[in-house]
Amino acid sequence: MTAVNKVSSNATTTSFAWETIIGVLPGTPVWNETEPNSFSDFGGQVTTMPRAPINANRKNKKGPVTDLDASGGYNTDLTQKNMQDLLQGFFFANHRKKGDLKNDPGITTLTISATASSSTFTRVGGTTDLTTLFSIDDLVLVAGFSDNANNGLFKVSAVTATTVVVVAADGTDGAVTLVDEGATSAASIIKVGIESDAGDIDVDMTGTRPALTSTTVDFTAHNLVVGEPIFIGGDATISQFAGATNNNLCRVRSITATRLEFDKTFYTMVTEANTTLLIQLFFGRVLKDETGTLIVTKPVQLERTLGVSDDAHTAAQAEYLEGSICNELTLNTTTADKLNVDLGFISMKHTQRISGDGTGDTGPKDGTRVGVAEADAFNTSSDFSRIKLAIMDETDANPSALFGYATDISININNGAVVDKAVGVLGGFDVTVGNFTVGGDVTAYFADVAAVAAIQANADVTLDLMVTANNAGFAIDMPLITLGNGRLTVEKDTPIKIPLEQMAATASKIDSNMDHTLLITFFDYLPSLADVDL
């Protein structure tokens, strides 16, 4: 066995696993591979303290290692799938799901089969009662089957504890052509919306805010929360309102069984009473900073494999950031670029392992390893369907925007994590977190003085954006913002620009039920109707 002279960066992989308590992995951890573009840091910085006694020779003596600061950070492109799980750690919260049936390595093991003759999906493994997840008229996205005929958007026509029967989701309730396929753990069924009965949902503009009203649909039965956006309207004419402006992205403000009110809409909605339409509504997986017992600390452990140190490929190497807290996140949006995210972690310890070094460590840690889900990166040129910064108006759900176009937008999260030090501990023994703070910057093209006036008036401002591609996407909402800066940038032969600083706060002053600072919704499915140009 001959030692290698170097290890290429291309021989490395980076993964994370959730810890049960900070610093402790579960018995069989699940290592989720990530896709770093670059590292800002990763590892431990050792502090030493030299001995400097008073002596005639004026010489220092070797001192001991006194401290270890462990941290990690990397940049990654943003896709539909690669950040959904890890973002929970930054929000100190769990996703609020609508109905999600899939194999979750290390937590639940289930398989799903497809039967062509009865248009049925059957849960073969696991114990979940499907009637607790799905109902008749739910719209579900099925994915992961080998035969693509079994994947796609369907409507639920019947459900039992172990089966879901589906029909076409195009407003016809027509038969679907499934293919017999044995049970697979790769398959998933996710609730992405609902379809109403004919003529059941209307648009009501008689109140203070635009609203949907219903006789049959119970709006309280779908795990909706105040502050989350939903998309109204499907691609088929029969599944969308006749008034084009009624088919749009809307933020939920109040929920009762028969009435769903909105305080932010993409367009200005109009009254519409329909008698024949089967209106489709699309929901997402909501993640927000929670309150009380819903705040959940989710420590992670980061692994970076470091190739092998011998030509026989027996000495596998890896390093670990143990007891890590998801501390800082920045979403970067600039012109003609990919959407990308900078992530930062604060850790208690940094350790290394290598196979066959005689210490008992045997290279990378054991566990289930999950590869990266293939997905395209979002781009900043054609994937944005909405960017709107506006003064919050309790009587106007579609107020004028403070700017028309922007050159760059950043949104950042900081949890204020600090490692706790103690005598007898190299590194840290715990991590203390501060407030969940959200901010950001916007550089916009100047059109009028409204944005400057809003800053000086300390107006209640709100920002939301929506990104869509390939019938999926996500929406971000900052319900209450204080704007800063606003000093115009005037340069020769260029458009005037206005730089704005965003300082977000909990929106509980607007509505006690909107007690969050930042909310992101991942839509597993969106109709093509949602993919519009800014």
Essential attributes:
534 residues, mainly beta, Pnp Oxidase, Chain A, 3 domains, 2 helices
**What Rg do the Cα atoms give?**
26 Å
- Major sheet: 16 strands, mixed
Q: What is the overall number of helices?
A: 2
How many strand segments? 32
| Domain tally | 3
Can you put this structure into words, describing what you see?
The chain is globular. The chain has helices spanning about 85-90, 450-455; strands at about 15-20, 30-35, 35-50, 65-75, 100, 110-115, 120-125, 140-145, 150-160, 165-170, 180-185, 190-195, 200-205, 210-215, 230, 250-255, 260-265, 280, 285-290, 300-310, 315-335, 340-355, 370, 385-390, 405-415, 420, 430, 435-445, 460-470, 470-485, 495-505, 520-525. The chain has a 16-stranded mixed β-sheet that branches. Helices cover about 0% and strands about 40% of the residues. With about 525 residues, the chain is an all-beta fold. The chain has three domains: about 10-90 and about 305-370, Pnp Oxidase, Chain A, CATH 2.30.110; about 100-285, no CATH class; about 385-530, Pnp Oxidase, Chain A (Roll). A hairpin with a 2-residue loop joins strand 29 (about 460-470) and strand 30.
A few lines on this structure:
The chain has 3 domains: 10-91 and 304-370, Pnp Oxidase, Chain A; 99-283, no CATH class; 384-530, Pnp Oxidase, Chain A (Roll), CATH 2.30.110. It is 2% helix and 42% strand.
